[in-house]
Write a structure and sequence with these properties.
Radius of gyration: 23 Å
Structural class: alpha+beta
Shape: flat
Distance between the termini: 78 Å
Mean pLDDT: 88
Low-confidence stretches: none
Strand order of the largest sheet: 1-2-5-3-4
Order of helices and strands: HHEEEEHHEHH
Length: 167
């Protein structure tokens, strides 16, 4: 069993020196992520889900979320949709610390809620770059690319054929 355990020094010998040097160079050349704010001190990001597109601005505040000029409790009446929108703040442990103003169009309410969540997550990473890790781990920064398949000609829907009639 003592043979199986190797120290870090033993493993360094196994690594190709050229690869180690290249990895060190890329680590040195990559610039750290910086905060990106507009003239009003807000972070802006675009979120997308299905056919919905959300433009999101966040700034420090009391946790007020406004969607298309209405408070988000009225716009997203279903509790599940409100929970989806709050998820990035819960993961980042920033509940009630940011005001969110967003405009969303296209798709249905579920797609719009997903688009707002995606936009909030991206805006949070622009305001606080160190939050990228936890948000990425939860999958909030990945754009969900699933959309409705288009209808094809000669078909009733995207894949469904017209009903067959023998006579």
């Amino acid at each position: 069993m003592a043979e199986e355990t190797k120290t870090l020094e033993d493993l360094k010998d196994l690594v190709d020196p050229a690869l180690a040097e290249a990895a060190a160079e890329t680590a040195a050349t990559t610039t750290p992520r910086v905060q990106e704010l507009d003239a009003q001190g807000r972070a802006y990001a675009t979120g997308r889900r299905k056919d919905a597109v959300a433009r999101v601005w966040i700034k420090p505040g009391r946790g007020v979320i406004t969607v298309n000029g209405r408070e988000f409790e009225r716009y997203f009446a279903r509790p599940v949709l409100r929970m989806v929108i709050q998820q990035p703040f819960e993961v980042a442990a920033r509940e009630g610390q940011y005001d969110v103003v967003c405009t969303v169009k296209g798709g249905g309410l579920s797609g719009q809620a997903g688009a707002v969540r995606h936009g909030i997550s991206r805006a949070l990473t622009l305001y606080e770059p160190e939050l990228r890790g936890p948000l990425k781990k939860e999958g909030f920064l990945t754009r969900d690319s699933r959309t409705v398949e288009r209808k094809k000609y000669g078909r009733a829907k995207a894949r469904r054929s017209f009903q067959f009639s023998k006579r």
